[in-house]
């Protein structure tokens, strides 16, 4: 699976129009237009997955820099970013870090009343 990034297209374009445009260059698995979570308005970019890398490269080369309704498209192959390291576990705020085995701090004895 190869993921293409498509940016700069008009906000009123839907998944079907993008699928038709990119479908001429090969099979398409998914089309995902990125929208605002609250308003559901298109943000002007999308991702398309194609099963064949050669077809994806052909589509990127053919469609990058072309115009759609007066707006220039940016089409790039979206290389997967390396996985980020797992997050470090959070400490509880009121609890100090546990002392190491060679820590010389000792607990004071409790006062008997």
Automatic annotation (TrEMBL):
CDD domains: RRM_SF
Ranges for region Disordered: 77-113
Molecular function GO terms recorded: RNA binding
InterPro entries according to UniProt: Nucleotide-bd_a/b_plait_sf, RBD_domain_sf, RBM, RRM_dom
RRM domain mapped to chain residues: 2-80
Pfam families associated with the record: RRM_1 (PF00076)
Name under which the protein is recorded: RNA-binding protein
Lineage, top ranks: Bacteria, Pseudomonadati, Bacteroidota, Sphingobacteriia, Sphingobacteriales
């Amino acid at each position: 699976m190869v993921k293409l990034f498509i940016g700069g297209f008009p906000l009123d374009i839907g998944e079907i129009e993008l699928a038709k445009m990119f479908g001429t260059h090969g099979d398409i698995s998914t089309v995902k237009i990125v929208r605002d979570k609250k308003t559901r308005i298109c943000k002007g970019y999308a991702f398309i997955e194609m099963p064949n890398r050669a077809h994806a490269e052909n589509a990127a080369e053919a469609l990058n820099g072309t115009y759609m309704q007066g707006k220039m498209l940016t089409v790039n192959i979206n290389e997967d970013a390396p996985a980020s390291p797992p997050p470090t576990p959070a400490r509880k705020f009121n609890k100090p870090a546990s002392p190491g085995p060679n820590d010389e701090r000792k607990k004071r004895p409790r006062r008997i009343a």
